[in-house]
Amino acid sequence: MTRLPQEDVARILGRVIDDDQNAPSDFKALKLQNPELLPSPEEELDEEMVEYYAGVRAYYKIGEDYLKFQAWVRSEYAKNGYVEVDDDFLAKRARVRADSDGAREEMLNTIDFSDDDEDLKRLLTTRWY
After folding, report:
1. Cross-referenced PANTHER family, in alphabetical order (predicted)?
2. How far is CA 118 from CA 24, 28, 125, in A?
């Protein structure tokens, strides 16, 4: 087991996940219209719409999962004064960060931001770690 550095613990605990405020406006609109984020039978005929729904669900699931992780870190820190993680956690985190950085750079190189879509810019350039 390895202790997370205090700056990592502080960053994890300090991060505010507020999908009602920070989600892209079209994601919020879809969730307001369809809280379960499941396509209708008519929408299921449109492959792009099915993929869009899946992407929106994934976005909200990431936030939910992070809140659970944050609660666990908070609990461990309150109980012990530190947070220990196993080597598998650290290895997975390093792989995810490297993969995420590479994919983000590759994707950003293909997008034309000249239309000033601030929601898209914020979503794509924000690091989640």
Report:
1. OS05G0193700 PROTEIN-RELATED (PTHR35166), PROTEIN-RELATED (PTHR35166:SF6)
2. 9, 15, 10
